[in-house]
Design a protein that fits this description.
The complex is a heterodimer. Chain A has nine helices and no strands. Chain A is mainly α. Chain A folds into two domains: 96 residues, RNA polymerase sigma factor, region 2, helix turn helix motif (Rna Polymerase Sigma Factor, Chain: A); 86 residues, Orthogonal Bundle (Arc Repressor Mutant, subunit A), CATH 1.10.10.10. Chain A starts with a helix and ends in a 7-residue tail after the last helix. By secondary structure, chain B is mainly α. Chain B contains five helices and no strands. Chain B is elongated, with a radius of gyration of 30 Å. The chains are: A mainly alpha, B mainly alpha. The interface between A and B is large, with 44 and 37 residues.
Chain lengths: 183, 93
């Protein structure tokens, strides 16, 4: 944890709103980058970042200061993002991109915008649980220990889940014939 | 691991998106100063839809009602002269 974070966390715990504002200003861009894994639209990303900072403030008393503040914030972000996926899956509000047309149409060579569309469209077809473990282990390249910390699962559970998720991803990509059109 | 390699390539391409910076500082502080919004967020933290809690409550109430009716019907069918054999029915009456 940086000295600035340490100072501001102490002040924020005592109810200093300006100290918490400085924390938000310091970490919001890195958090937004992270949250773009969980949501595509700018408004959704902003909402998730907002929710993460609010949840972090509500849990500030649980922060032990042994780990860097940013790591702690990122694990809250993971839980907020995962809850967002679960809410979407439950409500089925999100528009499914059908693999046969829209994904295939932008399969190769993708612009950054198209790549983002493909990525979210493919991952949305997985369950929130599979999607989370694929994101943490394979896209963010976190260790099993880190993934376990972020998810609250055991390390064995993370390994088993990752293995199964890879299998389901493979099946999904075979069904859509996407991996053959890799950029 | 071909599928993972493919996914990583797509992810790397998507990372080049030119996203505008965000600023949520004011909104965060505004939310933290609003007790009503905080209560909502505490509720969201539970991460269970209200309908789930309602359904759980209703199923418990239905189970309790069924049990009550079953006991009552048994006690009403009981031979009144055999009550002394069944202390439970005595209590319920």
């Amino acid at each position: 944890m940086t000295a600035l974070d340490a100072q501001d966390v102490t002040r924020a715990r005592k109810g200093d709103g300006e100290a918490y504002r400085r924390i938000v200003l310091r970490h919001q861009q890195s958090l937004a980058t992270r949250m773009r894994r969980f949501a595509r639209g700018a408004a959704d990303v902003e909402e998730l970042v907002h929710e993460t900072f609010v949840q972090a403030y509500l849990s500030l008393h649980t922060y032990s200061e042994r780990a860097p503040f940013e790591h702690w914030l990122q694990s809250i972000a993971t839980r907020v993002g995962y809850a967002y996926w679960k809410r979407r899956a439950r409500a089925k509000k999100f528009a499914h991109l059908e693999e046969s047309n829209e994904i295939a149409a932008v399969a190769a060579p993708p612009s950054p915008e198209d790549a983002s569309t493909i990525l979210h469209a493919v991952l949305e077809k997985l369950s929130p649980r599979d999607r989370l473990i694929i994101t943490l282990i394979h896209l963010e390249e976190r260790t099993v220990t880190e993934a376990a910390e972020h998810t609250g699962w055991s390390q064995t559970m993370v390994k088993v889940q990752a293995f199964r998720a890879r299998g389901r991803l493979k099946k999904l990509l075979q069904q859509t014939h996407l991996s053959e059109d890799a950029p | 691991m071909k599928e993972i390699d493919w996914l990583r390539k797509i992810d790397a391409a998507a990372a080049n998106r030119d996203d505008p910076p965000i600023d949520v500082a004011d909104r965060v502080l505004e939310t933290l100063r609003s007790p009503m919004r905080l209560r909502t967020l505490h509720a969201i933290k539970l991460d269970a839809p209200p309908s789930l809690w309602a359904a759980t409550g209703l199923s418990w109430a239905a189970a309790a009602a069924a049990l009550f009716l079953a006991i009552q019907s048994v006690t009403q069918l009981q031979d009144p002269f055999s009550d002394f054999l069944n202390p439970l029915t005595m209590v319920l009456r």
